[in-house]
User: Fold this.
Amino acid sequence: MKVGIIGRTNVGKSTFFKSLTLEDVQIEDRPFTTIEPNKGIAYVTVKCPEKEFNTKCTPHNSPCVNGVRFVPLEMIDVAGLIEGANEGKGLGNKFLSDAMEADGLIQVIDISGKTDGAGNPAINYDPKKDVEMVRNELRLWIKSIILRVKLHGVEDISEAVYKALSGLKFKFPTIKEVVKNLNIKSIDEHSAELISDYVLNKDKPMVIAANKMDAAENLKDRLEDLKAHFKYPIVPCSAAAELTLKEANKHGFIDYYQDSIKIKKDLNKEQIKALDIINQIIKKHGNTGIQQALNELVLNVMKNKVVFTVEDEKKLSDSRGRILPDAYIVEQNSTPHDVAELVHSDVAKNYKGAIDCRTGLKIKNDEPVKNEQVLKIIV
Ligand SMILES: Nc1nc2c(ncn2[C@@H]2O[C@H](COP(=O)(O)OP(=O)(O)OP(=O)(O)O)[C@@H](O)[C@H]2O)c(=O)[nH]1
Ligand SMILES: [Mg+2]
Assistant:
């Protein structure tokens, strides 16, 4: 599972990325700070089943804090876009192929309107323009790749398009579906655009992270306006607040957990002031919105599931005695065998079935796994 962070330049993409991965990346108040993609591990959060099973987990691949499991996924932050990227403006659009390694996208925007379409300071800039621009640049870029398809007589259109888009993680069934449903018989400007739109909609689900909410005046109106125009879920957030809290937590100044902040060390006046501002944001909105944006994409929009795997269905342990050691994010229709593939190729090879540890019953091989299911894979 991989999530890509995209958006116009200087909206806070790298700050968003860093607040979730704590990777040491460059953040600056100017356009085009990021050039090479940043990669790291972020986590979705789900309830740990330890309490329900009346046990205490000893996590291996997914840390547990106060009964909340942090389930890992890959995250990639790419360079920023500006209008005309398809004509080479700014850093162009070639880096978008890095973002397309992702199964889902978070588009970061600057809801404060204090930077313009080129990433420079502004007053009251309308972030709707950025959402449309990013969409348009993505569509034009995919379209240009599809337009390079040369059909040699009998060749299947779906296969030719799929080959041209290889590496961008679009699914073959999606391409077959659009070619069939829209009755596409040749590749031209119009059909390439239709295919581009369709595959982006279907295979790159997206949420909008309305960042810099701390700096926004009339935040409520601005959010309403966006919601009225776009079908994507829109999550108000402050990556700068989240990053400050995570770093203060890491260095032992505070205990930061979900929406609670506890001061641990003597802080100076400046630090107290900064924390006060952040505290007000959290009180007003409930949270910084960063983890919420990621969870919204991975669990609600993409409808992925989290499953826990164990080797002993009674003790809920692995061979080393660790309790509820591992959790995995799997696609909506995954079967127990698909989960086995994620655990290890040998486990998949020797797969003989799976048991639902809640019921103790065997699961049918073609039955999709359930969210937060605890599975014993029989090998
Ligand atoms: N007020 C406020 N500023 C923020 C927030 N998030 C990021 N910033 C600031 O916005 C500026 C740009 O941040 P980056 O994370 O480098 O932005 P980016 O989108 O990665 O930029 P490029 O890589 O250049 O496209 C920096 O000055 C950040 O400190 C936020 O939530 N609130
Ligand atoms: Mg950046």
Notes: The chain has a mean pLDDT of 95. Residues 184 and 191 are 7 Å apart (CA to CA). The longest strand covers residues 38-47. The radius of gyration is 23 Å.
